[in-house]
Amino acid sequence: MSIEFTDDSPGLTDVAGFRVGAASCDIRNKANGRLDLALVVADRPCSAAGVFTTNDVKAAPVRFCQRLLAAGGQVRGIVGNSGNANACTSVQGDADAAETARLAAAALGAKDGAFLVCSTGRIGELLPMAKVAAGVSEAAGRLSRDAAEGRRAAEAILTSDTRPKTCTARFTHAGRTVTVSGIAKGAGMIEPNMATMLAFVCTDAEASADFLKEALRSASDASFNCVSVDGDMSTNDTVLLLASGASGVRVGPDGDPSATALFREALGRVCFALAEKIVGDGEKITKVVSVEIEGARSRADAEKIARAIGNSLLVKSSWFGEDPNWGRLADAAGYARTGLDEARLDIHYGDVPAVLAGRPVPENKPRWKEVVKAARFSVRLNLRLGDGKFRLLASDLTDGYVNYNKSE
User: Fold this and answer.
1) C-alpha distances out from residue 259 to 2, 176, 212, 243, 244, Å
2) What local confidence, expressed as pLDDT, does residue 57 receive?
3) N or C: which end of the chain has fewer CB within 10 A?
4) pLDDT number for residue 92
5) Mean pLDDT score across all residues of the chain
6) What's the pLDDT score for residue 13?
7) Which among 14, 27, 140, 16 has a CA at the least distance from the CA of 82?
8) Distance of CA 329 to the CA centre of its chain
9) Percent of the chain beyond pLDDT 90?
10) What gap in Å lies between CA 46 and CA 69, rounded to an integer?
């Protein structure tokens, strides 16, 4: 048995037991007709789980979702908007998040507490609730399993993104097909844990909320928490996972072990693909770089080094300039202060060695330059101190990024 993976799929409409709708309600106050509200609705109450930003400053929707999921029980869906983060909005923001959920529940004839809420966009402004109400009503009227509506929903949660981010994974167990599909947004203010991102993942597997939470945390740690564009952590980071059970295939401790293993693999594939799409769509970037650390004393040490390199402005600038300045990699690895032994350090650009056992290999410089000309390449450091390893997907720092973000 294997996973069938579809990149750039229609998104959540691939999953049995869910419908989606999207609307344009001018949350940005630009009257440009851009889609800015998405509604994801399960046919019946379903299990759900989420992982969220670790920022001390959490947006009202994050706090709302955390409280709702902590209370237990099942949900009917998600309502998400772009153009306004509903962050740093005090008690009114909390009231608006709750009202958004109430509006969605009322539109679907569901009970209060049935909808999770997500927002993304500008920080510090109150939601225009009359527009949100109109958007919820419009999206509810468009609920569908049509692929076109699935793509509209993926578009509705975008902010500075240049393109929607979707994918789907499927596997067959005991003659039944299980689907895991996701949509995401994110391009700037990207740094785990997690990124200025929203990701909605749906499956037709049957599972408990406790298992979904554990599986989602594991998948996120290997995907959304392994990316960085600019080193800034957001107030609104949220990944939600909903399970309709429509396939009839149970996964988790009380499910078939082979089906559970395939589900974990499918969820991991979806989360990693969405994370990779987020980095690849980083604001004004030109490079996606896989920073691969191995031979560390622990995974934690490897992660510290990878993040030091991936978030170094000097390193990121050199990637943009296509200058294979391995000295900046060594410097960043050193100031991670994990006890690196320079005399054991190997550095490679792709498969081309730049440093072996602490000794430079300058004759390879022409080959390094060819590696870093590519839009995607890897840098690999082997510390030769243990078995710890970590991979971070990072991007370059461009003048375009600075110009884009120097003002609102």
Assistant:
1) 11, 10, 14, 15, 16
2) 87
3) C
4) 98
5) 91
6) 98
7) 27
8) 26
9) 77
10) 12
* Cα 405 from Cα 278, distance rounded (Å): 17
Burial class (CB in 10 A: 0-12, 13-18, 19+), 142: middle
How far is Cα 272 from Cα 162, in angstroms, rounded to an integer? 19
- Measuring CA to CA, which residue among 17, 156, 132 is closest to residue 77? 17
Cβ atoms 117, 80 nearer than 8 A? yes
Comparing CA positions, the residue from 111, 159, 202, 224 lying closest to residue 408 is 159
What residue spans define the domains of the chain?
A: 4-280, 288-405
CATH superfamily membership of 288-405? ArgJ beta chain, C-terminal domain (3.10.20.340)
SS3 per residue for 257-325: HHHHHHHHHHHHHHHHHHHHHHHHCCCCCCCEEEEEEEEECCHHHHHHHHHHHHCCHHHHHHHHCCCCC
In CATH, the architecture of 4-280 is 4-Layer Sandwich (3.60)
- Same CATH topology for 4-280 and 288-405: the answer is no
310, 392 Cβ separation under 8 angstroms:
yes
Write b or e for each residue in 202-212: b if 16 or more Cβ atoms lie within 10 A of its Cβ, otherwise e: bbbbbbbbebb
Q: Is there a catalytic annotation at residue 89?
A: no
Q: Is the pLDDT assigned to residue 242 strictly greater than 90?
A: yes
Q: Which of 53, 196, 203, 338 is catalytic?
A: 196
